[in-house]
């Protein structure tokens, strides 16, 4: 599950970086720089239970969705249909689906 999840994130990150550059911006290229700028809390250095990992993953989705919804509204208000479509059709839709998927796993794990 985590491998598929990571692959989807990588693809979305590339799409967003390309859009930033198309609009004349500079995207963050180094993982350490992205982690420093991120609002998503860093994982602990030691091991953690699978339920805790999924809880953190769900929180990350909620943070991304909150940002993406604000960005989609702002890009729509500014008439940037391409960026709005990227946020709504790709980022929001995929994160909503993955958040639902993680929630289902958590529910099943907590009731077993």
Could you please describe the fold and organization of this structure?
By secondary structure, this protein is an all-alpha fold. The chain has one domain: Up-down Bundle (Ferritin). Helix content is 78%, strand content 0%. The protein is built from 4 helices and no strands. It has helices at 2-22, 31-37, 50-77, 81-111. Helix 3 packs antiparallel against helix 4. The longest helix is centred in the last third of the chain and has 31 residues, at 81-111. The chain is globular, with a radius of gyration of 15 Å. The mean pLDDT is 91.
Instruction: Give the CATH class.
Output: Mainly Alpha
Q: Report the span from N to C terminus.
A: 19 Å
- Overall, the morphology is globular
SSE class: mainly alpha
CATH homologous superfamily designation: Ferritin, core subunit, four-helix bundle
Number of domains: 1
- In DSSP terms, counting alpha (H) and pi (I) runs of 4 or more, how many helices? 4
Q: Evaluate the radius of gyration.
A: 15 Å
- Could you say what the CATH architecture is? Up-down Bundle
Oligomer description: single chain
Overall pLDDT: 91
Would you report the number of β strands?
A: 0
- Main beta-sheet strand count, sense and barrel state: none
Regions with little confidence, pLDDT below 50 for 5+ residues: none
CATH topology: Ferritin
